[in-house]
């Protein structure tokens, strides 16, 4: 259902927008197929595109979808990529190769070997390597603090890649906090919140990036807090990054800061 709806939206936007606008903001988007109702979940390559599309084009997409479906349509957008979008070819793959889409794929280039180590991060790197060898036993939860561009995401994903290399059955999920919010909102809209909870709470390792984006989002903090506790009580590994200390993040509940 949604492929044809999205194709109709693309055709409409292509005629309404300039070529530069279409190629810059619309072409990079992917859609997650969902047969449950009149809704579209769009995936954008980064937060900037999400914000721009929400501000400038989301209503146009919504109008185009409603004209195609002849029904009121919900349109959500979050950070993600093509690997999470359901395609026709994916349905032809053997069942064993299909994994439930939770979070975003790890960047295979983010490894300990490729991480630039120095005096400022050698302790964090050593702790991360220890976590990769024995997840859930020490440094749990593991909080990585640092400024923008200092390698927090690289170090975090290095743990995930090492764990996957050591044991492919390990359930590792990497998710930006804003992505977590988007997925939760989509689950609420589609009445699939229980599935959302089960997917995250059945993980062996949860890597959550830029937790400062949870600030002010009470419902998302509530869900993350419960997921956090379930995983910790089961001795599952949690790694969190932020460009601010927890106490400096306004709008973040005290119970999360204290954890």
How would you describe this structure to a colleague?
GO terms for molecular function: ATP binding; DNA replication origin binding; lipid binding. Pfam families: Bac_DnaA, DnaA_N. The chain contains 10 helices and 7 strands. The chain has 259 residues and is an alpha/beta fold. The chain folds into 2 domains: 88 residues, DnaA, N-terminal domain (GMP Synthetase, Chain A, domain 3, 2-Layer Sandwich), CATH 3.30.300.180; 137 residues, Rossmann fold (3-Layer(aba) Sandwich). A 4-stranded parallel sheet has the order 4-7-6-5, sandwiched between helices. The C terminus is likely disordered.
Topology of this structure?
Layout: H1 2-16, H2 19-26, E1 30-32, E2 39-44, H3 47-56, H4 58-69, E3 74-79, H5 122-133, E4 142-145, H6 152-166, E5 172-176, H7 177-189, H8 193-201, E6 205-209, H9 218-233, E7 237-242, H10 254-258
Parallel strand pairs: 2-3, 4-7, 5-6, 6-7
Antiparallel strand pairs: 1-2
GO molecular function: ATP binding; DNA replication origin binding; lipid binding
Family: Belongs to the DnaA family.
Domain AAA+ ATPase: 138-259
| Residue-averaged pLDDT | 79
Based on helices, strands and strand pairing, what is the structural class? Answer: alpha/beta
Strand coverage percent: 5-15%
Structural shape:
globular
Query: If helices are DSSP runs of H or I spanning 4 or more residues, what is the number of helices?
Result: 10
Into how many domains do the coordinates divide?
2
Total count of strands:
7
Major sheet: size, sense and barrel closure?
A: 4 strands, parallel
Write the CATH homologous superfamily of the largest domain.
P-loop containing nucleotide triphosphate hydrolases
Q: Separation of termini?
A: 43 Å
Portion of residues within helices: 40-55%
Q: Indicate the CATH architecture of the largest domain.
A: 3-Layer(aba) Sandwich
**Cross-sheet strand order for the largest sheet:** 4-7-6-5
């Amino acid at each position: 259902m949604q492929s044809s709806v999205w194709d109709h939206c693309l055709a409409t936007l292509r005629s309404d927008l300039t070529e530069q606008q279409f190629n810059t903001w619309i072409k990079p988007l992917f859609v997650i197929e969902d047969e449950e109702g009149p809704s579209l979940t769009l995936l954008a390559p980064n937060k900037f595109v999400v914000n721009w599309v929400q501000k400038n084009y989301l209503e146009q997409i919504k109008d185009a979808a409603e004209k195609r479906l002849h029904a009121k349509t919900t349109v959500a957008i979050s950070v993600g990529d093509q690997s999470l979008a359901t395609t026709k070819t994916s349905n032809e793959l053997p069942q064993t190769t299909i994994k439930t889409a939770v979070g975003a794929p790890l960047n295979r280039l983010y490894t300990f070997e490729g991480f630039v180590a120095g005096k400022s991060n050698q302790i964090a790197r050593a702790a991360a390597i220890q976590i990769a060898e024995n997840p859930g036993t020490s440094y749990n939860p593991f909080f990585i603090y640092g400024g923008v561009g200092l390698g927090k995401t690289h170090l975090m994903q290095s743990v995930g890649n090492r764990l996957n290399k050591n044991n492919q059955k390990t359930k590792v999920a990497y998710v930006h906090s804003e992505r977590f919010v988007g997925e939760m909102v989509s689950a609420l809209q589609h009445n699939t919140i229980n599935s959302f909870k089960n997917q995250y709470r059945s993980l062996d390792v949860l890597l959550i990036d830029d937790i400062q984006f949870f600030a002010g989002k009470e419902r998302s903090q509530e869900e993350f807090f419960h997921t956090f506790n379930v995983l910790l009580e089961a001795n599952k590994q949690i790694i969190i990054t932020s460009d601010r200390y927890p106490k400096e993040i306004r709008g973040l509940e005290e119970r999360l800061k204290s954890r």
